[in-house]
Specification:
This is NAD(P)/FAD-dependent oxidoreductase. The protein is α/β, with parallel strands linked by helices. The chain contains eleven helices and 21 strands. Helices cover 33% and strands 20% of the residues. The structure holds flavin-adenine dinucleotide (FAD).
Length: 464
């Protein structure tokens, strides 16, 4: 790969190119379940439905190709975080949230198990997740975060000082870190491609280049025909705002990434990172990174967070300032990489509900279902959502009873919509500008307390 690539959907497509597109829907038809969206959520749902009942007629309708959205663009942190857990604890009690957390811990293993069973390669390395602190305020937050995670039953999480952190990854200025084994690095596109092939092999029909223009009880409408089905499941995450009636449901937030050229052995010796942990930090405008299977660093953070009017992206093209800002984070973390070349930059959209809580729902009566609002933690959560949507469909149709999954506290959660424009745009722009200022202030002052600014931004955004 010569030169710098901007967009092209994502770096993860750089080797094999974008996939050949499957046939679009050929006309009106019927199914038992129709799924809108061929990302992890839609595909996992199809997978578990077919595994549970091979006779079910399941169709997936995808506007471009499977993995076009965040599932083909993410940072490849397959980990146990779920957006909204603390709120679910407040709403349904601590024990219910502990069950949710336990289900998420198990989900990481479930994804690894299925990938092995289906026999495809997704460059999985189960090295856990390491989150580092680089300022006194970040260290205080890290310690609180560590204790908080233990309170949800994570017995195997560890807290490291500066020296132990450096033994794992030599991040400049790192004063401590927290590590959980419940995480793995994956190649996002290998995962979504392998999963789509596995789903197809089970007998699910996948139609690509097939945008759904209306989702109604009992049918999904496309320019090529209408699919009638008792269950219509919306798995469109960051693209949801483009659907009629859903403009203010989940705010499409951008996240951007860069991938470096492959590092030399000398550069890796300076960085360490033998354990290939998913790597993050405790800044308000946090970063996330992985050591890729082909020896690069892929690193992400907030780009231009949100486009006015909930507009989504153009095949991942990323603004020059965002690329420069991410490169600056990379070199700040690893000064030995000051001369390293950025090979690729891209962006994608996440779905953010007004209360920042992921949900999975099947409406009784209408047969309409949906899952998403994962914010930045959807790689594993989409698998839990898929299994749960499967169980909810089987419960509703009388094929099965309640399961442990249908009783988890995120099932059926409702939240109010986002404010109309321009308030929404102003609010999100303001929130991210505030996070950046809070990070700068914490670095400059070496204060151990989290900046009050960040706490205000959290409140304005509805995060607490
Ligand atoms: C840059 C970036 C980095 C991220 N990093 C991580 C990470 O490291 N770890 C983590 O846990 N999470 C991460 N996430 C979030 C994670 O990738 C997502 O939460 C997850 O992939 C969501 O899967 P999904 O199937 O619900 O949505 P998507 O993958 O977005 O899939 C939705 C699909 O629906 C299709 N679609 C939309 N509208 C229609 C329509 N009208 N008709 C037909 N099809 C339609 C889209 O084309 C798309 O393929 C990241 C996200 C981004 C953008």
């Amino acid at each position: 790969m010569n030169g710098f690539v901007n967009g092209g959907v994502s770096f993860w497509y750089a080797y094999d190119g974008l996939p050949a597109v499957r046939e679009p829907l050929a006309g009106d038809t019927t199914a038992d379940v129709v799924i809108v969206g061929g990302g992890y959520t839609g595909l996992w749902t199809a997978y578990y439905l077919k595994k549970a009942d091979p006779a079910l007629r399941v169709l997936v309708l995808e506007q471009r190709f499977c993995g076009y959205g965040a599932s083909g663009r993410n940072g490849g942190w397959l980990y146990n975080g779920i957006a909204g857990r603390d709120r679910y604890a407040a709403l349904h009690g601590h024990d219910a949230a502990v069950r949710l957390q336990k289900a998420m811990n198990d989900t990481v293993d479930e994804v690894v198990r299925v990938v092995e069973e289906e026999g495809f390669d997704a460059d999985i390395h189960q090295g856990g997740v390491l989150e580092v602190a680089r300022t006194p305020a970040q260290l205080a937050r890290l310690k609180d975060f560590h204790a908080h995670e233990l309170s949800y039953g994570e017995r195997d999480r560890e807290l490291y000082g500066a020296r132990e952190t450096a033994e794992r990854v030599r991040v400049a200025g790192a004063v401590g870190s927290t590590w959980t084994p419940h995480g793995a690095r994956v190649h996002p596109v290998k995962l979504v491609k392998g999963l789509a092939a596995a789903v197809e092999a089970l007998g699910v029909g996948i139609h690509e280049s097939t945008p759904v223009t209306a989702i109604l009880a009992g049918r999904a409408v496309t320019p090529y025909g209408t699919v009638r089905a008792p269950y219509v499941l919306r798995c469109t995450e960051g693209f949801t705002a483009a659907l009629k009636g859903e403009r203010r449901t989940w705010l499409p937030m951008n996240s951007s990434m860069i991938a470096t050229e492959p590092l030399s052995e000398r550069q890796w010796a300076a960085v360490g990172w033998e354990g290939r942990e998913a790597l993050g930090d405790m800044a308000h405008a946090y970063m996330y990174a992985q050591r890729t299977a082909d020896g690069r660093i892929a690193l992400g953070g907030r780009g231009v967070p949100y486009r006015f009017g909930s507009r989504t992206d153009h095949d991942g093209r990323t603004q020059r300032e965002t690329v420069a800002a991410l490169r600056e984070i990379l070199v700040g973390f690893f000064p030995a990489l000051a001369g390293v070349r950025v090979a690729h930059a891209w962006s994608g959209v996440l779905g953010v509900p007004r209360d920042w809580c992921a949900t999975v729902t099947l409406e009784r009566g209408s047969g309409l279902g949906w899952a998403g609002g994962y914010v930045g933690s959807g790689v594993a959560t989409a698998n839990l959502a898929g299994r749960t949507l499967c169980d909810l469909v089987r419960l509703d149709s009388g094929a099965a009873g309640h399961t442990g999954l249908t009783r988890l506290p995120w099932v059926g959660h409702q939240v109010r919509k986002w404010e109309p424009e321009p308030l929404r745009w102003l609010g999100v722009q303001g929130m991210y500008a505030t996070y950046r200022t809070a990070d700068r202030r914490e670095t400059r002052t070496h204060s151990a307390g989290s900046s009050r600014l960040a706490r205000i931004a959290d409140r304005v955004a509805g995060r607490h």
